[in-house]
Amino acid sequence: MAILGIETTAHTASIGIVDEQARVLALVSDVYKPAAGGIHPREAANHHAEAFPALLERLAQEGKLHPSEIEGIAFSQGPGLGPCLRTGATVARVLSLAWKKPLIPVNHCVAHIEIARILSGMEDPILLYASGGNTQVVAFAHGRYRVLGETLDIGVGNFLDKLAIEMGGTFPGGPLIEKWALEGSRLLDLPYSVHGMDVSFSGLLTAAVAAHNSGVPRGDLAHSVQMTAFSMLCEVLERGLAHLGKSEVVLGGGVAANKVLRAMVEKMVAPRGVRAFAPPPSLCTDNGAMIAWTGLLALRNGITAEVEQSPVLPKERTDQVEVRWRLSPRWAPQKPIP
Ligand code: AMP
Ligand code: MG
């Protein structure tokens, strides 16, 4: 038996099907790309509404859609953009009613941790969640996943996206900045903004745009921006590790696909004897498989929602979520899959 998971917190409309061994049986996604500027929530939601019939069709054509083998329908309940979340939730409710399967609400941030935890075989990692809209350090403490630190303004991915567009690129900007950085090596002095466990990127964005406008070569700028922003992330991650005494790190979010960030995290953790793991890019970025997997943990531990009582929660905090499968599990995966 498997769970079907639906993801629509922001840019990505995605469906994943995952079984009890955390095997990803299917994963199809369609990413909304704004014509110009940042994400427009209503336009993104319209994109998702149009994308889902085609995604379901693709699954059916690939021979991967077998309702009789699906045990439940999980969906991203929050946090995220209201119109986008509602579109995904509607699809999930329809499938739940049509196929008579339980509906399972899933917190998006928790899903990033759980997919990394099962793929790595780690017990109790600290998560650096670096995505478009979110940048957080999250860990399990006192019975819940807690946000130990986060961005005070924009997410690191949004920062990279905005800068890349100013530099003549298109969304998504993160991979472009990573590519351009290979052309440069000079390290510019840019604003480095860490406040305790929190970070901020708006000052760095202003300074980087100004540097671009004053003619700094794009390779040097991209290199400097990555080194500065990722050093900030490594600093708060290291502080989190030190305070909590944890010995495992996982990365999540689309920015975790970045090779420079991965290498910097490896370099930071190695002398501490800490292990680090990042899922493959398709499972780092927003995806339906992580929702399906977390939905399975939730369902097997008695967490479902009635269709009439399944509101989306755009501002849901990670620490509002009951993590029953870690506190007093009724069901746990047979063994971690390394
Ligand atoms: P997510 O919000 O988790 O779906 O991830 C999307 C974000 O990840 C966007 O802001 C992308 O620019 C960013 N991203 C994707 N690949 C990379 C990369 N290789 N380096 C840096 N950022 C990336
Ligand atoms: Mg995400």
State the gist of this model.
The chain is α/β, with parallel strands linked by helices. 42% of the residues lie in helices and 20% in strands.
How would you characterize this protein structure?
With 338 residues, this protein is an alpha/beta fold. The chain has 2 domains: 2-112 and 284-326, 2-Layer Sandwich (Nucleotidyltransferase, domain 5), CATH 3.30.420; 121-280, Nucleotidyltransferase, domain 5 (2-Layer Sandwich), CATH 3.30.420. The chain has 11 helices and 12 strands. The protein has a 5-stranded mixed beta sheet, sandwiched between helices. A 5-stranded mixed beta sheet has the order 8-7-6-11-12, with helices on both faces. It has a two-stranded antiparallel ribbon with strand order 9-10. Strand 1 and strand 2 (12-19) form a beta hairpin. Helix 4 packs parallel to helix 6. The structure holds adenosine monophosphate and magnesium ion. The site of adenosine monophosphate has 21 residues, from helix 4 and helix 5.
